Amino acid sequence: MKNVKLAVAIALAVLVVIFAIQNAEPVGVEFLIWTWTASRALVLFLVFLAGVAVGWLGRAARRRA
User: Fold this and answer.
1) pTM score > 0.70 for this model?
2) What is the domain extent for residue 13?
3) Helix %, strand %, coil % for the chain, to 5?
4) What is the rounded distance in angstroms from the CA atom of residue 17 to the CA atom of residue 45?
């Protein structure tokens, strides 16, 4: 079972690297009054992290209620 988890983790890491290489071109990002340029992969990763944080905070708030 430990080897399966390691293999899945390595496969996911390879897919992330391929995704980042294929989406490295810079894109313009506008949010409220801020504007900046970043790679598409970085923008998607940051949005993913924001979603994880919102889910984690929502779950923590639901446990306290």
Assistant:
1) no
2) 2-64
3) 70, 20, 10
4) 12
C-alpha to C-alpha distances, 56 to 15, 36, 42, 65, nearest whole angstrom: 25, 27, 21, 15
Structure tokens at 20: 């980042």
43 and 35 in contact (C-beta within 8 Å)? no
> Which tokens in the block code for residue 57?
């905070």
Domain count, the chain: 1
Alpha helices in 23-64 (DSSP H): 40-64
How far apart CA 44 and CA 14 sit, in angstroms, is: 17
Partner residues linked to 26 by β-bridges: 39
Which pLDDT tens digit goes with each residue over 4-50? 888 888 898 888 888 888 888 999 989 899 999 998 888 888 888 88
Q: Which two tokens stand for residue 32?
A: 């409220």
